[in-house]
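fyi for ur records
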Amino acid sequence: MSLDARRTQLVRRTFLDYRQMSEFLEQPLIINKAKGLYYWDDNGKRYFDGIGGIFVAVLGHGHPRIMEAMHKQMEEISFAPPLHAISDVGLDLVERLGEIAPGNLNYVKPFSGGSESIEAALKFARQYFKQTGHPNKFKFVSRYYGYHGGTFGAMAASGTGKRKSPFEPHTPGFVKVFPPTYYRDRFSSWEECNRFCARMFEDVILMEDPETVAGILVEPIGNTGGIITPTDEYFQILREICDKYNVLLIFDEIITGYGRTGNMFAAQTFGVTPDIICGGKGLSSGAIPLGAMIAREDMGEVFLGPAEQEVSFAHGHTFAGNPLACAVGLAVLDEIVEQQLDCKAREIGDYLTTKLEGLKQYGVIREVRGKGMLRGVELVRDTQNLQPFPELGRALKRTALDNGLIMRVDPTWFAVAPALIAERSDIDELVDLVERSLLDALEQVGG
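which gave:
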């Protein structure tokens, strides 16, 4: 679509996330309508939302249950003063999240999004250890290619170099290891590679001194590295390491939470219960900013005591636990549970994978990764040498929009994560659009 002079100038006065605006102006997209699985731009062109907004719209756009909950709550109360009170609907969300979370993770604090939830977990962990006789535990071990948010603590925990380097030096106390995909070609099997990469966390903890390490922070499925999907055993090893050295296991489930991987949380998908889960995105299906930190109940007990002891969690945000957002979150969770959309994500996700595997016929796909309705496809020049094919990815980003498809495209991989309401016919439409866009991109790059 083309922009008039006014909109062109306004675009130059703002920015998209992690995008060069001069590039955006070459193929601008101004969206003014969304419903179900689709967006419409300013010219009326329809786009299939193949990435759920950006891993957000788990119920699609404009879901009636969400709209009804929001309208009803607006008539009651839309803001409660966080220094003085908590809303009744806020307590309802605390209860509901505790019910659906694994293990005894039912100490809950709602926030305005994923980055806030991560920041809270980092501060919570440090204060927790100060108040339990381990004041030197302040470091966190995370992964390269991991992305945990745009705020300073979350950014320091992230392993995305070019997104971080403009803001160095970063908050101290963050150490990185490589994800399994980095070493996969050096091992005889994926399972062996995962064992090695999981054990690296222990090596780092020992070298840093276990009494200085507070937590391991990982995405169960790593987005920015290309939907990196470790084995179940990988997470079992992390759990054993954390138990051995009194280190907290923190799952960043901002993308993987709320039915996306075939269970309410990826922790359940991989069969390992962390000490803290951080969530965001899908909790409100994109209707309003909302996230949550969910921790073990016994950890929360450490922050209760006489006022003079000053052991309360020294943290807060103005819009944390906003009643309007909490009402939306409850509606989303109720819909997922009642319609068993997490179970549906397993079934439809398997069908999606089968369809994506069919694209291997074009000789430029190394593998399809992911769980449930979160799938990534790695692009290569050929399936013999397995060399990356960034030119293809850059072309695919353009051709997808031309064909009316919005998905996550990196130069060496792409991801799709449609809303959990999608049916098999919708998956057929999605993959047909992916295939058409891939063929157009191959034609552009001479593949």
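Residues 37 and 49 are 5 Å apart (CA to CA). thats all i got for now
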